User: What shape does this take?
Amino acid sequence: MNSKNFLYAFLLFLSPMLAMAQSQKCKTSEIRQQNFLENPALVEQRAKAEVQMQKWIAEEYPTYVAQKDVVTLPIVVHVLWRTQAQNISEAQILSQIEVLNEDFRKMNSDAGNTPAAFQAIAADAEIEFCQASVDPAGNPTNGITRRQITQEFIGDTEDWYSTSAGGQDPWDNSKYINVWICEIDDQGTLGFATPPGTANPPASDGMVIAPEFYGNIGTAAQSVPNHLGRTATHEMGHYLNLEHVWGPTNGGCGEDDFVADTPNQNQDSFGCPSFPETDNCTNGGNGIQYMNFLDYVDDNCMTMFSEGQKARMLAAVNGPRLSLLSSTACGLTINTNDITLVPTTIYPNPTANFIIMDTPLAVGQESVLTIFDISGKVVLVQNYSVTPEMIKVKVEGLNAGIHLVELRFGNNVQGGKLLIEK
Ligand SMILES: [Zn+2]
Assistant: This one.
């Protein structure tokens, strides 16, 4: 809420007071404190980033929010499974993308359950997510890696983000939101995330979620009351710089979440309180905002982000998370009819394995070759620092069907339609 409190709050992380007796649904605060203790330089770095984001909200956000379109952020999911049940299906993984997109766009079917008193500040955050369709090498992918492991509760160790330690290295953390699906512990923890600038080491940036709480079908459907995919909604909020509504620790009424439209709240809420729920920090009026995604209530009880939280998340997207916006990991889903191409010879066409494309206009220049499928989704990206006279591209990994091949250099675009046959 005010800018002095957050510096004080960050100092609190270094104090030994972190009393949490009850089971913790989310370990984000604890992991962050641990990272700050291990790498004290992060504290100052993080405080500076916070100042910049607050400045952006004050000075740039009003214009930005009036003009900008929805942003889309790419996700890669790494499944580290020990039992078959933990090796969750692709359908379950994709169901999470839908939940995220509904919750972040205020399209969730239970948005109407937000009490009338908070409806005016319940926000469409104008942020969407996509499952990566292009891997770091530029090849098509379903945005999922899978590894069978033997280590129990790898999410409690520092091994989950390292292939050599038995986990899975991240994909470029600046271009993908890395989500590791693995066992965390048996103490009730559902997940945790790294707010911007707090990951230690940087490779651990992203979030960790236990398999039975990811998505809303398959094994997740059995995980009542955490069965609707709201764990990832909550953790994505942290990843985009949101604090719990009661503040960075459970420090009482003196602690704030740096958002003006979430009422001061003493501590976490559980189950599903009835409106209005008051506490010793907000003891009248509309009470606390227990139905916020950044509280701990049951999945079927949390329904909203606030406008203030939206501003904070967009400050992160346009600040420390900015590199995600230029990621081609999902590519832009575009209307391919909007691209005006200088026709180019592409052969063989139809093809099954590869294409050769003449590049008479592009020789020697930097260029980007992009292949779109018929829905406008990017399925392959290739960057050339020095474009050869003829480009040969393997397309055997792509699905059959009509595609659009585009070679972009400077303001010029050339290419054409391509039919891939199997
Ligand atoms: Zn949390």
Remarks:
- The first strand starts at residue 71 and ends at 81.
- The chain has a mean pLDDT of 89.
- Residues 26, 28, 234, 238, 244 surround zinc ion (CB under 6 Å).
- Residues 321 and 327 are 11 Å apart (CA to CA).
